[in-house]
């Protein structure tokens, strides 16, 4: 039930002087009620126990003024990121959602003013008739008017709604930024996978070239009766294994390139054919992790849930303010006359001004339940914010620990690959001198091949660790 007071003043029914004091109070009462502030819901601060530093440091880091060591080490990544931003459909959809949220925020801000002006005009024809005399009369009246309404936002309901919409728009902005960052990370990871596949292919082809040289020597020794067909079979087995590894690397490269094509919308670029790399190429130092509090400023996913929490608080304020009455001020200016030419004369004008009271007397507890639901949404958003903070910190700590362990493993595998290559060289020289059996040479070559493949895998892992650390730290790309 929404009771409405009678109009305060009209031209047809002027107020008696004895009621002027009541009219003044009717105008001033909403101003006094505006002092009743709606308190926001309270929740624990999720940043209270935020650590001051990361537990796993990095011994050698890029300079602090370098935004992304990867973009410095691999300029083609910048071109790849530009292609993803320009042609990816998922990013376009996220930007459209942001634009939609921004437009809704503008609409809510416009509604917060609560000033509404409408105009109307029309012609009314009415008639009377006498059944027995058969006479009838028809009257025509032309009318036009302007209606206006203004509702003061005494308890901040519309301001809270506008604030919530603006915060939702900011959350949509950070959601689009987070999605874009995910797409860029996927593109960079596919690019590194393509590089790793080319490196594995290069290792297989290098070993196959050695096998081809050994085959010519072995054929000559078999013809001279110095080697057996068993040794030839062992050599061909190794050659087949190398061919299979090369085919696998080529398939992995093709898959990585197709992922890049999908992410870039079929765009062309140098990432389609990255060159094979040596052991020391394209391994930039990891970025400076800074302090954990930096994650709050750099990671778009954390910024998104933080804005969602702020929007939930504003929505809770709106739900609480909805339980209080409103005091709309309405006004009407109307013109009506039988002759349209006389409609704009002062004698044809009438006006009305009313300050009304609108309050919900009974709704079965709906507004109170909605306020409780909004408070629960605040607690949920606060829990999500804290979970995002903990997850962000955990991801960085885990990546730092993984980077340390994988770097140590890579150094050990590099030494193992060098030692295995040296052992093969010694045995190959001894075989050529007729001092050892060829089976020992093949075993040494297999060991070298496995060690080199393991090292290339570890090198690719170290690259991915650095890229993943940049992603989790929110380093700008």
Q: What report would you give on this structure?
A:
- The protein is α+β, with helices and mostly antiparallel strands.
- The chain is built from 10 helices and 5 strands; from the N terminus they run E-H-H-H-H-E-E-H-H-H-H-E-E-H-H.
- The chain has helices at residues 20-33, 69-73, 75-87, 89-112, 157-223, 229-263, 294-298, 300-321, 366-432, 438-473, and strands at 9-10, 115-129, 136-150, 329-337, 349-355.
- Strands 1-5-4-3-2 form a 5-stranded antiparallel β-sheet, with no helix packed on it.
- The radius of gyration is 39 Å and the shape is elongated.
- It starts with 8 loop residues before the first strand and ends with a helix.
Average pLDDT rating? 81
End-to-end distance, in Å? 57 Å
Tell me the structural class: alpha+beta
Spatial order of the strands in the main sheet? 1-5-4-3-2
Secondary-structure blueprint:
Elements: E1 9-10, H1 20-33, H2 69-73, H3 75-87, H4 89-112, E2 115-129, E3 136-150, H5 157-223, H6 229-263, H7 294-298, H8 300-321, E4 329-337, E5 349-355, H9 366-432, H10 438-473
Helix pairs in contact: 3-5, 4-5, 5-6, 5-8, 5-10, 6-10, 8-9, 9-10
Write a compact overview of the structure shown.
The N terminus is likely disordered.
């Amino acid at each position: 039930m929404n009771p409405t007071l009678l109009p305060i003043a009209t031209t047809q029914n002027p107020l008696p002087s004895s009621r002027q004091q009541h009219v003044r109070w009717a105008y001033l009462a909403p101003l006094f009620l505006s002092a009743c502030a709606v308190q926001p819901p309270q929740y624990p601060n999720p940043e209270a126990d935020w650590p001051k530093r990361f537990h796993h440091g990095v011994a050698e880091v890029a300079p602090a003024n370098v935004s992304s060591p990867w973009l410095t080490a691999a300029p083609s990544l910048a071109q790849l990121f530009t292609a993803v931003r320009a042609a990816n459909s998922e990013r376009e959809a996220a930007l459209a959602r942001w634009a939609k949220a921004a437009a809704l925020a503008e609409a809510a801000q416009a509604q917060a003013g609560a000033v509404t002006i409408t105009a109307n005009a029309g012609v009314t024809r009415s008639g009377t008739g006498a059944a027995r005399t058969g006479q009838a009369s028809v009257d025509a009246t032309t009318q036009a008017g302007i209606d206006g309404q203004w509702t003061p936002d005494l308890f901040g309901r519309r301001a809270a709604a506008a604030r919530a919409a603006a915060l939702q728009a900011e959350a949509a902005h950070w959601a689009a930024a987070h999605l874009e960052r995910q797409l860029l990370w996927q593109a960079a990871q596919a690019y590194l996978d393509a590089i790793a596949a080319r490196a594995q292919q290069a290792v297989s082809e290098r070993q196959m070239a050695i096998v081809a040289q050994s085959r010519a020597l072995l054929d000559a020794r078999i013809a001279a009766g110095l080697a057996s067909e068993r040794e030839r079979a062992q050599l061909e087995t190794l050659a087949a294994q190398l061919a299979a590894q090369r085919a696998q690397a080529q398939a992995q490269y093709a898959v990585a390139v197709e992922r890049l094509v999908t992410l870039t919308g079929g765009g062309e670029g140098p990432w389609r054919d990255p060159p094979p790399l040596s052991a020391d190429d394209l391994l930039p130092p990891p970025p400076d992790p800074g302090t954990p509090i930096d994650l709050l400023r750099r990671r778009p996913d954390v910024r998104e849930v933080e804005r969602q929490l702020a929007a939930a608080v504003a929505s809770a304020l709106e739900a609480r303010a909805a339980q209080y009455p409103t005091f709309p001020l309405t006004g009407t200016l109307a013109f009506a006359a039988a002759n349209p030419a006389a409609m704009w004369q002062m004698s044809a004008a009438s006006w009305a001004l009313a300050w009304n009271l609108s309050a919900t007397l009974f709704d079965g507890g709906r507004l109170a339940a909605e306020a409780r639901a909004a408070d629960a949404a605040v607690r949920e958003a606060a829990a999500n914010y804290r979970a995002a903070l903990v997850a962000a910190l955990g991801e960085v700590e885990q990546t730092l620990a993984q980077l340390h362990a994988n770097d140590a493993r890579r150094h050990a595998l590099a030494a193992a690959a060098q030692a295995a290559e040296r052992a093969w060289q010694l045995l190959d020289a001894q075989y050529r001198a007729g001092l050892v059996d060829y089976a020992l040479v093949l075993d040494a070559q297999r060991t070298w091949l496995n060690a080199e493949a393991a090292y290339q895998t570890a090198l690719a892992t170290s690259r991915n660790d650095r890229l993943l650390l940049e992603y989790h730290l929110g380093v700008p790309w």
